[in-house]
Sequence to fold (351 residues):
Amino acid sequence: MKSLKAQGNKFSSAQYQLEVLEKISTGEESLVTRFEDKLQTYGISGLKPAELEIMQVNVGKMCNQTCTHCHVDAGPDRKEIMTRATMQHCLDALRQAPSVHTVDLTGGAPEMNPDLIWFVEEISKLGVKTIVRSNLTILVSNKKYHSYPEFFAKYKVTVIASLPCYTAENTDKQRGNGVFQKSIEALKMLNNVGYGKDETGLELNLVYNPIGASLPPAQDKLQSDYKRILLENFGIEFNSLYTITNLPISRFLEYLLAAGKYEAYMEKLVNSFNPATIDGLMCRNTLSVSWNGKLFDCDFNQMLELPTGNGSPKHISEFNAEKLQERSIVLNQHCYGCTAGAGSSCQGTII
Fold:
């Protein structure tokens, strides 16, 4: 199998990724069971959504970093950005969906969207919790972003920040030279306005992604290590640590193929399949909205360009809670990543 880099055009790579995922589950090269067939062995015939609770919105793929594990393939050269008009469609949809209690804003670096401040202010008027997923370094990369910690605190935005390790060596290996030190500076900025301190109610959560082709360790144990080491070495406090499994798509898939570890990693995910994770999968209670307003069952389906199925609305401007509730969730081989071991979601382990 050739690397995704050989495809040349990143904007057409979703089809190639799907072909790679399909290749190991069909024909003579079959290595793993199809995900739908695995569900059938446990008496599960497809997946249906539960009540919609979270709207996850990708406000753009522009980012100041180019991380090796990034499933969004975000970076400084990406031009995709959500417009205020599409944000308005999201707000209109929220008014039609009283069961949604959280809007989860992702990127790229969400802070690089010029309308993010307006969007957060408008979401707050609806009484809905807002999450912003920050890469941290954006907060210290340019003066125009220095005020974001205070802005987030004003609107009680929950900040979820990527920090793949509590050491500079491992963090920089995954995210680039100097990223760890900049991340520490940004975490101190957030702590200085009250984030990560129980008495303030300003929630700061960190995210751990494995550096290589392995599953995350036990979340509780790793959280204890993070809390102790970051406090002792840097005086940094935070609320929770989320461990998230790297799914075999985009840059991480490219890494697996180039390193000759793809088949072994997929077999590891399949062999670690845990049916107890099914009820808590994020695709069950979350709707993913792309930068251009298209709808998906999850952020990973969005990157693979697998839209919502069963004739349900395909764009946020067509939002209809009842029709979306009737759909079946679109599945593929990458779904093994969310069901392996203790499970994986954007809020960490499932069980």
Summary: The first helix runs from residue 13 to 23. The chain is about 35% helix and 10% strand.
